[in-house]
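Handout, section B. The chain below has 173 residues.
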Amino acid sequence: MLRLPGSGVVFFFKGDISKRLQKIFNGFAAGVMFAASIWSLIIPAIDMENSQGKLGWLAVSIGIIVGVGFLLFADNLAEKSMNKNNFNGQSKKNKMLNLAITLHNIPEGMAVGIVFASSLSGSFGVGIASAMALSIGIAIQNLPEGMAISLPYKASGSSNKKAFLIGTLSRNC
């Protein structure tokens, strides 16, 4: 799925982007991503496990803990790599943000694939409407993610085209 609109916001800015405006866009992106993860991923996963007579909160909690552990490991590995390659300041922050959002595409893609496969196979009682709802939820939260990637690059001096390209590629890798 091509996710151009979020990254395209850079074309609406000429010159510098204020720190305050960057914080507003990042807060919006974080809020949308948080809401999407709760209502489109966590609650449906708990409900699915509960419908099979299992402790839904337990499986989801374990998944979240394992995910946090993986992200801490990945963050530590990326930090060492950035230090080794002499990245610093805003460039390092931009690259870390880009890496974080790009990495989280993996479970997003897996979630969409699993829910569509479940709906097609008839397992877990997942219907096509649920699969579509998840896909739409993820698509909606991809808009602010594109902004969260492209705006810091624009603010740190990258051209609109470069910021747009980086934001778009981070969502399509």
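Note. Residues 18-47+54-172 form one domain. Compare this with the example in section A.
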